[in-house]
């Protein structure tokens, strides 16, 4: 019966359309020829406008969570991105709740030596941030940011669940070493216990990497970059993403660390497990509002193919580009139109016709995409030194504070809670920057963004230089207090408050706010449409390489100074005998040279331009910004 009704409706609709077309034909036949043409054009324009109206309501290149076309009236916007911000609070809480205090767990409960514990923590954190590149690559190529987040969150949950079980069940841990037998060799976690430990840790690292590589671009994808309002909202999103990241970190380094130290590590791991588990349904609550970018294939394959074609064609004479390439370039309108730049000219050889397999043929759009990626790499390399400074201060600064008076009134603050200072500074500065600094700078510069992405990153680099100089001066003051009080060889607290160390954290927190939010916004905006998740992951890869570089620099400094001065700068068990102030000055000089290197590339960088219509609307130009 239902089929008969459907067929009847189809016949009625077809007959009505045939009847209307016949009436239109009869009406036009009674009119002169000019009137016929005029009426036919009117009907054609009406049909064209109806098609345009349907297409205008769709987000081209995006789908909803059910893989249906995303609609402008239902998907995207700040409301959709707000779910991402809430999830980031829980995700960073789950990660930092254990990473910030993990070295203590490995040395005290898994019986690893202090050096082995430190190396394991460094490897764990560096691996987690490097795996963000894998998460971004998979989001761009084969899956979506939506799917990668869910897979990664489940992976991190499984890893934390394994660590919680090991911390709770005594038989899954090595025998506890008391202070009496600490001088004897303690039994480290080995075989099955070590396998369970490291399997849990690196499942967490894999999950964290996938989330870092998919969650920020997923939130940024909710805004329409073709409008001024959409770009402003996206910049605001990245600012508050760093703010929410800091909110999770604040809870982790205060409440959860206290729980781990006083109630047991099984409670700390349990809180982290619950946090990442709760984040999954919160993320799913926003499914109906998300617009999700459709994957377009492997960007790495595109880069390799274009580089190979460009190199192979360097010895050929220029010829015209094939029409097929030009047609393909404009076939997909969801990708921003880019003007052909004059730099990296050797890549234009990939456009030239030559006897080659069809899969090696290139068009203008593909070559411009590769050039966009190559152009942002020097900026990426310039940010590694900043994160090297962050890594150094997060280790030595805590040891400095441990030798100082850590009381505020009658309250004693544990040195491990020192990271709360940069977190608090970021939480205060993020709203101030977004609601005061940006509006004022827009009025002063009469530009859309007020402060460009490269200016924000450059400001972060300058603040890191100031932070290292401040750290050196504070260390000089600390050692002077040790000498004057006669406590240079003592383990008693020095008569100087640890709040002096908070000064360098003030500049570090400011540097992190400017650089991290600026880097994510810059890489997302300047990367090709098909590589945005991977490019945004460079922000986390820079952090990972900063951790690795910090370890290399410490070993290198000790090796060189130990050769020429016989006593390495950073050697021994007593921090008062270290030449830490010299190391900080050395880091300050390296940061200054790195800033000059950054200026060289930043002043020559030309921002990506949009199509003529958008360019006229937004005023975006191809000129290099002042840094």
TrEMBL record:
GO terms for molecular function: transmembrane transporter activity. One of its GO terms (cellular component) is membrane. It is found in: Membrane. It comes from the Eukaryota. Its main location: membrane. The chain crosses the membrane at residues 76-97, 117-139, 146-165, 194-215, 236-259, 265-285, 376-398, 418-436, 457-476, 496-517, 538-563, 583-601. Pfam families: PTR2 (PF00854). Residues 1-12 have a biased composition (Polar residues). The keyword RNA-binding does not apply. Keywords: Membrane, Transmembrane, Transmembrane helix. Residues 1-27 are annotated as: Disordered. InterPro entries: MFS_trans_sf, POT_fam. The keyword Ion transport does not apply. It is a multi-pass membrane protein. Belongs to the major facilitator superfamily. Phosphate:H(+) symporter (TC 2.A.1.9) family. This is Protein NRT1/ PTR FAMILY 4.6.
């Amino acid at each position: 019966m239902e089929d008969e009704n459907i067929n009847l409706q189809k016949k009625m609709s077809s007959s009505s359309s045939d009847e209307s077309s016949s009436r239109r034909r009869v009406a036009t036949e009674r009119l002169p020829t000019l009137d016929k043409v005029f009426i036919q054009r009117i009907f054609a324009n009406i049909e064209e406008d109806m098609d345009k109206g349907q297409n205008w309501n769709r987000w081209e290149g995006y789908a909803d969570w059910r893989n249906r076309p995303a609609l402008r009236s239902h998907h995207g916007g700040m409301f959709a991105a707000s779910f991402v911000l809430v999830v980031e609070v829980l995700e960073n809480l789950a990660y930092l709740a254990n990473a910030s205090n993990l070295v203590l767990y490995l040395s005290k409960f898994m019986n690893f030596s202090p050096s082995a514990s430190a190396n394991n923590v460094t490897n764990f954190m560096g691996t987690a941030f490097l795996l963000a590149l894998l998460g971004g690559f998979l989001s761009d190529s084969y899956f979506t940011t939506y799917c990668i987040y869910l897979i990664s969150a489940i992976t991190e949950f499984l890893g934390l669940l394994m660590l919680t079980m090991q911390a709770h069940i005594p038989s899954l841990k090595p025998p506890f070493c008391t202070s009496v037998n600490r001088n004897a060799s303690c039994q480290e976690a080995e075989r099955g216990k070590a396998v369970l430990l490291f399997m849990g840790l690196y499942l967490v690292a894999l999950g964290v990497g996938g989330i870092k590589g998919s969650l920020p671009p997923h939130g940024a994808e909710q805004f329409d970059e073709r409008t001024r309002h959409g770009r402003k909202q996206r910049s605001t999103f990245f600012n508050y993403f760093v703010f929410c990241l800091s909110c999770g970190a604040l809870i982790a380094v205060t409440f959860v660390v206290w729980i781990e130290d006083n109630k047991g590590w099984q409670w700390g791991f349990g809180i982290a497990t619950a946090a990442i588990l709760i984040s999954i349904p919160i993320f799913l609550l926003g499914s109906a509002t998300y617009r999700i970018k459709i994957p377009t294939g492997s960007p790495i394959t595109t880069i390799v193919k274009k580089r190979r074609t460009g190199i192979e064609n360097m010895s050929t004479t220029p010829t015209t580009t094939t029409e097929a390439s030009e047609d393909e370039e404009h076939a997909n309108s969801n990708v921003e139109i880019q003007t052909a730049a004059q730099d990296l000219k050797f890549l234009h050889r990939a456009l030239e016709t030559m006897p080659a397999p069809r899969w090696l043929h290139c068009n203008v759009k593909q070559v411009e995409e590769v050039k966009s990626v190559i152009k942002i790499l020097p900026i990426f390399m310039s940010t590694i030194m900043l994160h090297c400074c962050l890594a150094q201060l997060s280790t030595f600064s805590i040891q400095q504070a441990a030798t100082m008076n850590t009381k505020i009134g009658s309250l004693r603050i544990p040195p491990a809670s020192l990271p709360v200072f940069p977190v608090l500074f970021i939480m205060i500065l993020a709203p101030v920057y977004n609601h005061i600094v940006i509006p004022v700078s827009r009025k002063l510069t009469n530009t859309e963004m007020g402060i460009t992405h490269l200016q924000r990153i450059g400001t972060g680099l300058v603040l890191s230089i100031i932070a290292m100089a401040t750290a050196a001066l504070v260390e000089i003051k600390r050692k002077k207090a040790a000498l004057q009080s006669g406590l240079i060889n003592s383990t008693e607290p020095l008569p100087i408050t640890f709040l002096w160390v908070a000064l360098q954290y003030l500049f570090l927190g400011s540097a992190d706010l400017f650089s991290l939010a600026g880097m994510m916004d810059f890489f997302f905006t300047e990367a090709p449409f098909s590589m945005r998740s991977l490019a945004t992951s460079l922000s986390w890869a820079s952090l990972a390489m900063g951790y690795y570089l910090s370890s290399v620099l410490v070993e290198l400094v000790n090796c060189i100074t130990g050769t020429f001065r016989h006593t390495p700068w950073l050697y021994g068990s007593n921090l008062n005998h270290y030449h830490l102030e010299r190391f900080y000055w050395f880091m300050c000089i390296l940061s200054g040279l790195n800033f000059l290197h950054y200026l060289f590339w930043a002043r020559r960088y030309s921002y990506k331009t949009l199509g003529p219509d958008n360019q006229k609307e937004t005023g975006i130009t191809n000129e290099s910004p002042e840094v």
